[in-house]
Amino acid sequence: MTQKVLIINFEEIYLKGKNQKIFIKQLIRNLKRKLHAYQDYLQFTQAHGGSYFIEITKEIPEPVLEEIIYKVKNTPGITGFYVADTTGIAMDEIIEKAVEHAQKHTGEFNSFAVIGKRINKSVPYNSMELGRELGSAIHDRLHKKVDLTRPDFKLYVKVRSNYTIIYSKIIKGIGGLPVGTSGKAITMLSGGIDSPVASFMAMNRGLHLTAAHFHSVPKTSPQSIEKVKQLTRKLTDFQGQIKLYLIPVLDIQQAIAKHTDTRLRLILLRRIMLKIGERLAQEEKAKALVTGDSLGQVASQTLENMKATEDATDMLVIRPLVALDKKFIIETAKKIGTYDISILPHDDACSMFTPKSPETKAQLKYVREQCAKLPVEDLITKALENTEFVILSDTDSIKIDD
Question: What is the tens place of the pLDDT at every residue in 186-203?
């Protein structure tokens, strides 16, 4: 065992019973990809109960360690983690390493508590004796006050089979399930606040996402596409790499405006968007579509209108935000870092197309009748022929295909 180790906890995965190994394997695969640039510092080892150990093989510069912590913290499936010092199981070794660890943080606290746990029952001391000896040493050498009720600083010490781990700062992860364990989906990504949050929530339940963005260039500014690329790049913090399809829908909008009931513009557009998403799902071997719909938030998101929209596809449509209020969605957007990008001004394909008096309780039979007036398959084929995609990564590599 090296002098330092990164210990990762995964509570929900630990509850998966016989399937636990599948989830851990995917989590480690995701972590190895995200931490590939730091492989000179890290050695992946093995799982211990509800934790996984990554050995730190040499001293890591502080800025590099901060980068590693950021990537681990934003990996779905990880509930928490910490960087621990390691030493032997002899009491004198543990005391020296514990005092050394506490001394690094001496400017941060006046009172402390030691939480000692003897997992190895063969050592000649119990957990209470371990805590008492370490507490006494830190008090005498660092002149800090012991406070077992409300300490400024907690030192955790666990004596395992042939080594001891010592740590103090537990970093909270985002929890959830590892990306890829729940299959693949296409997320309908706009430049607004909601759809990036929906995408994050889907990834955090184990879905591997491919993104689809619908634009009206040249009617709208190309800057709207750049904004969505920024949002997608931010979402790669959680998935690592995301393929983003850029789909032109101006011809579809013009056909809808010319041939159908004005009040149904958005519903008909969204129906065709879902059908295009279905085509992309076939290409990407995805099994679901993800949208940012939140019940009652706008005219197109009433129960009747969502039913009329979803009727266009046989695929499962997942709406992670459907029962969430706007405040919660905004707070989540700020937490994951998409909010400041989402509020940048941009031209949206849907908002530019919104009628003055949109239908709020669409009748499915009438919607189908209006949709039948459109050459839907021809419009979809043309849109897909002019679709581009870009692959965005948390390592900043970008690939464009025309």
Answer: 999 998 999 999 999 999
